[in-house]
Each structure stands twice: as structure tokens, then as C-alpha cells.
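Reply to dn_fold:

You asked what the input looked like. This is it:
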Amino acid sequence: MIARRRIWVAGFRIAFVAVTWLALTPEPPKAISGISDVLLHAIAFAVLTFLLAEAHFSQRLLWPMLLMALYGPLIEVLQGAFFERAAELKDFWVDLVGIAIGAGLFRLLGQEANTWLARLPGVSDREN
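and this is what came back:
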């Protein structure tokens, strides 16, 4: 059996690597290049905040929000300094909106998501 928390941790790690790669790649894949940059930032930070809260901070929402709020400007600085991407203040503000959405979803759906996940075959609440 796999522990529910390990699933959240794996989900966060996969999402974090994907978002970081997409943010730092010189040219995003065509599949997402047609989607609004604002929408992509909001979705990415909502998902990352939700998954980070589930994976590591199930009782304290302030830490995942703070960590994601620090990650946003870091990405912008790296884009502007080392990659052929523009660092934009607007992106940071949209990241904060995404963080708020992710935190709200965690408050609204976090327990329900855990209940749903625990019902899957091979998933347990215990750490191995």
C-alpha cells in the first residue's frame, strides 16, 4: 500500500518540475503557447499551492502560500537574468491570485480530496 501523503508529495514534485521547466524554457511548447499567460500563471500557482499544502502543510496554510509567493519572483528573476524570457511584475501579481485560489481550494476541498484519495485501492493513511 502507498501512503496518501506520498501521492501528494509526488504530485507536488511533478507539478513543481513541470512549472519550473515551462517557466524557464526559452519557448514553451505549442500546446500551451496559445493559452493566456495570465491564465497559465494563475492555474500553475493554484495547483502548486494546493499540492504543497496537501503534501507538507496539511494544518498550516500560511507556509505554502509564503513559499509559493517567494517562488514566483524567483522565477521572474531567473527568466530575466539567465533566459530569453521577460520578467514581468504583472506575472507576480497573477501568481498571488493563483496562490489565493489554491489556498481557497485547499480550504474548500482539501478534506474531500483526501477522503476521495483514501478510497482508491492500494492507498492508506499510514506512512510506511
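The radius of gyration is 16 Å.
Hope that clears it up.
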